[in-house]
Amino acid sequence: MARHREFLFLARALSPSRGDESVGALREEIARAQIVWPELVELASQQLVTPTLHQALREKDLLDALPAEVREYLEAVHTLNRERNRRIADQTVEIAAALDRAGIEPVLLKGVAHLFADLYGDPAARIIGDIDLLVSGQDIERAGASLTAIGYRTADVGDMSFAEHHHLPPLVRADAVAAVELHSEPLFTAFGNLLPAAELIAAARPVAVADRQARMPAPRHQMVLNIAHAQLADRHYWSGRVSLRALIDLVLLRARADDATIWPGILDAFDGNGYGDACRAYLMLAERLLGQATPPGLRPTLAARLACRRVEVQRRSPRLMALGASYGFYRAMLAQLAAGPLARRRVLNRVLHPAGYRRWLRAWRQHVGRTG
Questions:
Q1: Within 13 Å and on the Cβ side, how many CA atoms surround 256?
Q2: Which of 5, 69, 237, 270 makes the best surface tag, with the fewest CB within 10 Å?
Q3: Are the C-beta atoms of 262 and 219 separated by less than 8 Å?
Q4: 138-197 pLDDT, tens per residue?
Q5: Whole-angstrom Cα distance, residue 206 to residue 214?
Q6: SS3 label, residue 290
Q7: Which domain holds residue 249?
Q8: 59-94 b/e (C-beta count within 10 Å ≥ 16 → b)
């Protein structure tokens, strides 16, 4: 692929390494004027890491080395994302207050959890899509009613069915910058055994949301969610792809945690559910792309090594990326069929519904169209 060089440069620039040698190598690569900047900017956008790239280059004192128009673009996106994330934080505070009035204490998930935990040390550095909140299954309908009472409505999801889904249909409001997803489970049914809601809620710790209180998943659970969403729910392990945004989240989460006490349990969970290779491959990609050593005692399997190599090879070929996307859809469906009666029923309902084919075709085309 023509922009393989730009992808590797992007990964090295995003790496948390601040050593003189690594920063010097980046500065030298910029000076050689071989980076195709429009390609790199587009790639950063596809990977949802444009403001993260600005933060990383600023901390490495490399912004001054960029072409002026690239530097100005990164600064503009960073500024816009700061405002967006401020509004998302305000929106979360309002939602937490509405749920508090109903006696419900939500658990913050994914991007909004990282925002309130200040994971990046810069509220503008990470792009956040939806506001993901977890509540107990017995509270999910009351939680939805609480948001309806403050003006939210169910988004238009077309013919997509949320029956037996792990979250309600997205809730939106005209003046709200982000949609809200209320989860009764943190993961798709097919992968739910990796982390049931009851286990996550029981271990979650309090976190202040302005003058209200919510909860934050334990570090171990945040990492399980990160790996499961990227590698399994988003099919990256089976498709031969990688999300740099998700990988950076993991690197930063690990930097705050104790590898020696946390990782044996995480690996046991993935091994016990048949996804150990996906977990190991992800950790190996974090080392290869972002320079973070794998956890102590991690033994790479042959399948994990091959998965990492596949990511490297596919990045050089759009055709291989398209084939990888097709295989990822097929393999993810098999995983869901094998996951138990509930997951199997959901897949069969989608297969037997004509609208399901239209949804899959749209999703497949979108998936193939991505180069990240």
A1: 16
A2: 69
A3: yes
A4: 999 999 999 999 999 998 766 555 555 677 789 999 999 999 999 999 998 888 899 999
A5: 6
A6: helix
A7: 4-369
A8: ebebeebbeeebbebbeebbeebeebbeebbebbbb
